[in-house]
Amino acid sequence: MTSSSSGRDSAADSAAGPLVGAGATALLLGAALAGLDAGAIGYVLPALRAETGASPLQASWLVSMYVIGTLAGIPAAAVAVRAHGAERVFRLCALLSCAGALLVVLGGQAAVVLGGRLLQGLGQGPLPVAAAMIAARWPQARQGRMMGAISMAYGIAFLGGMLLVPLLLALGWRSVFLAMLALAGSALACMRGAGSGRDGTAQPGAPAALLSSREMRAVAVLALGTGVGQAAVILFPTLAVLRLSVTPAASGLLMLPLALGGVAATVGVMMALDRLGARRLLAAGGAATLAGVLLAAAGPATHWSLLVGAGLLGLGITGLSGGPLRYAAGRAVAVELQGPAQGAVALLTNVGVLAGSLLFGALAGVGQDERTALEAAMLAACVLMGGSFLAVFALRAHREAEGGGR
Fold it and tell me: Higher confidence at residue 374 or residue 100?
């Protein structure tokens, strides 16, 4: 790590005070907001289409516009963090989320609803703002725990969205967006209550300096592999349907170990990241991800293979993306580059998701039957992931990273 970061511990200790209470709550609410949206939108689409008269194509754009907003918001927020500080950018993101949810609630036309979804994506996508704030304002001994807590807030809200939103829809689809509006408003209010102390992330710095860090280059490669793994998670239910000849509804039960593995990994990361560091947890997450996909795609076509594979995949992919990558990025560069570094992790993970999706789509059309094609695509994804996960050996050991030789 660069020498300019050598005094970060003492600076973070002195600066962390205003954010530890209300500020920490704001970050957790922001993560929960993004998780609720991800878990709820699939249930909202049919009800929204029925009332607005949106076509299937228009309904699909409710997701696409959100993703477009997210992809635009991440790099914009990363740049803005350097210029204006993470607290101000977080407030703006929460305000955009409020405006987007309110527009969706009040909008009767499909075009208005799409505009609201775009604003929600712009506001809810830049979670790197939260990671940058933690890396710059929290003492190093507590950063891993806080990043793990943010991942847990996202995961709990995601599962809550899947379980509770169908009940909430009895009050109408707008009630879901009212819940999102309440979360965004609460996050904004908490961050206002945190005060506006000096934000170390507002210092000038050259984004090109990211490339000069060997560890940051390793984090970038790991992020790409993690994105490919996330694409495999998306297609995992389809793999279960094809390998076991079960209905899509029955495949949902097979995904329960994936969710439980994710919860277990989130708790483990939150408890162990500060103590063990990123390298060990990333290595374990990569190994579990590869084992889960290989078992599910190339092992015996049995329920037990899919169940154990799903559990390993949930454990591994959450272990990769649930905090350790951001933790490693936070130690790879100086304070003034935290915004660009955390933004790069998010962008490259999304690039990996896109690359994995394109890989699966390309191999699905090679003339084989659908099951064989998907199994081959999963194995090809394992090759890509395995190559990228080797980058973990370029990261320094935890004690080295914490010592004076950073």
Answer: 100
